[in-house]
């Protein structure tokens, strides 16, 4: 086997990937840099979407319905969310951290804030 970075022949364990700590560190530092760029872009979109939902709902409301055009005008990116949930009626909730939104129709969007539950 050869080192992933410098192609030196590896000595020792059969599952070894790098010939030295220097090569191993080089590999992982560059992997983190490449990952950080992509993650930073996605996080920016997700946080912007969450800010838009918070702005539309306000700090006190738990749920509201808004016209889709309101979110579109604020440049909400509908295809980005943290996870999905399908309820018992087959409706899909798109979660964005502590918010969820669901399409009622092409014109209406229901926005729901997850409430915190406290353990006693």
Short synopsis of the structure:
The chain has helices at 21-57, 68-73; strands at 63-67, 83-86, 92-96, 99-103, 108-113. With 120 residues, the protein is an alpha+beta fold.
Describe this structure in words.
This protein is an alpha+beta fold and 120 residues long. The protein starts with 20 loop residues before the first helix and ends in a 7-residue tail after the last strand. The chain has one domain. Strands 1-5-4-3-2 form a five-stranded antiparallel β-sheet. The protein has helices spanning 21-57, 68-73; strands at residues 63-67, 83-86, 92-96, 99-103, 108-113. The longest helix has 37 residues, at 21-57. The model has no long low-confidence stretch (mean pLDDT 89). It contains two helices and five strands; from the N terminus they run αβαββββ. β2 (83-86) and β3 form a beta hairpin.
Q: Which structural class should the secondary elements be placed in?
A: alpha+beta
Helix-strand topology string: HEHEEEE
How many separate helices? Answer: 2
Question: Mind telling me the C-alpha Rg?
Answer: 23 Å
């Amino acid at each position: 086997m050869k080192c992933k970075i410098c192609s030196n022949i590896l000595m020792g364990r059969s599952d070894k990937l790098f010939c030295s700590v220097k090569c191993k560190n080089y590999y992982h530092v560059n992997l983190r840099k490449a990952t950080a760029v992509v993650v930073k872009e996605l996080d920016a979109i997700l946080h912007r979407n969450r800010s838009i939902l918070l702005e539309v709902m306000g700090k006190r409301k738990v749920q509201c319905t808004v016209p889709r055009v309101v979110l579109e005008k604020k440049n909400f990116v509908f295809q980005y969310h943290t996870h999905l949930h399908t309820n018992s009626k087959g409706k899909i909730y798109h979660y964005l951290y502590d918010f969820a939104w669901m399409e009622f129709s092409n014109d209406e969007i229901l926005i729901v804030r997850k409430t915190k539950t406290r353990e006693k």
